[in-house]
Amino acid sequence: MKTLALKELTLSHFRSHKRVALTLDARPMVLFGPNGAGKTNIVEAISLLSPGRGLRRAGADDLTRRPEALGWKITAILQSLHQTHELETWAEVGSPRQLRIDGKTAPQVALGRVARILWLVPSMDRLWIEGAEGRRRFLDRATLSFEPTHAEAVLTYEKAMRERNRLLKDMVRDPHWYTAIEAQMADSATAIQRNRRHAIDELTAAQKVAQTAFPTAALALTSAEPIPDDLQTALADNRSRDMAAGRTLIGPHRADLDAVFADKGVPAKDCSTGEQKALLISLILANGRALANDFGAPPLLLLDEVAAHLDATRRAALYDEICALGAQAFMTGTGPELFTELGPRAQYAEVTETDGQSAVTQKDKP
């Protein structure tokens, strides 16, 4: 199996970290330390080496260290298959995020061509019991890992939909204002639905072939209202109803990801907290296995507070699966005892905080 791994990571004035410089190998990395020390800030920085706004969906100005507010920068050396890339992303105060790959300015979507990054964060523990938006975002992250152009299709669709919604709110009735916008929405929607279904198929196949301690989730793409094959015609026919609502009522922006604990036949939303967490981990691992075949290397995994709601047996099983997959996983936890089962299979760093200053100390063992 080929390798996808960070070899070096440097943060400058990012969140609580004035400066962090890590030298890494391809093993999993454990970041341990007290709550509030800055562990999640490090995995958030790594998440910004993929397209989008990262695991906290923060704006560029929110990422800069206070009180200096000088802007921030992340630099990484990434081994991707048989190539090595230098990645730089940064933002000055009041300016949008910028990116260079190997010294050349690049759009964010280009990150999806050199790396694949998946994450699991505590806020996702409520994924199955909260609104459809979070599940849709989760599915789109998985979809993006298989098809980097998915982000472009989603952005194009959402931009066109915002324009259409403005027309609806302004009570514009002239069809000429809508035709081009609705055609663009329909074209993008076709790609979005195709990409999402492909991702679900990949996740389903990867779960079926795995021997794992984590439960299998039966997945389905659903929608508040059925999305017709001819969306452009449906949007035109639906203008009066949408105008009364002040927004577009049909389309992939109303899709949902349905999951059922397969062995029990119980919807994920009705499972216990531990089962819901196990289902999430199962999907992340399935995504990783599928990408190892699709991309040629397992993805980087960002697993924030991953040991929460897992007993010792499941923790050990998770670590065994990560190591068998060969993924460079960045895992956080409050104490090294949560990662005892990993032993020398991982690298370690202690994250501490004193007087508002975070510090990171790499260690040979926890």
Question: What's the SSE blueprint?
Answer:
Blueprint: E1 4-14, E2 17-23, E3 29-32, H1 39-47, E4 72-80, E5 83-91, E6 98-101, E7 104-105, H2 111-114, E8 117-120, H3 132-146, H4 150-169, H5 176-208, E9 217-223, H6 231-237, H7 239-245, E10 255-261, E11 266-267, H8 273-294, E12 300-303, H9 312-325, E13 329-333, E14 347-354, E15 357-363
Parallel strand pairs: 3-13, 3-14, 8-12, 12-13
Antiparallel strand pairs: 1-2, 1-4, 4-5, 5-6, 6-7, 9-10, 10-11, 14-15
Helix pairs in contact: 3-5, 4-5, 4-7, 5-6, 5-8, 8-9
Quick recap:
The chain is of the alpha/beta class. 36% of the residues lie in helices and 25% in strands. The chain is built from nine helices and 15 strands.
CATH top level class name of the largest domain = Alpha Beta
Beta-strand percentage range: 15-25%
User: In DSSP terms, counting alpha (H) and pi (I) runs of 4 or more, how many helices?
Assistant: 9
Secondary-structure element order, N to C: EEEHEEEEHEHHHEHHEEHEHEEE
* Structural class designation: alpha/beta
CATH topology of the largest domain: Rossmann fold
N- to C-terminal separation?
28 Å
Extended strand count: 15
Biggest β-sheet description: 6 strands, antiparallel
Name the CATH superfamily classification of the largest domain: P-loop containing nucleotide triphosphate hydrolases
**Rounded average pLDDT:** 94
Oligomeric composition of the shown chains: single chain
Strand order of the largest sheet: 2-1-4-5-6-7
Features:
alpha/beta, Rossmann fold, Glutathione S-transferase Yfyf (Class Pi), Chain A, domain 2, 15 strands, 366 residues, 6-stranded mixed sheet, 9 helices
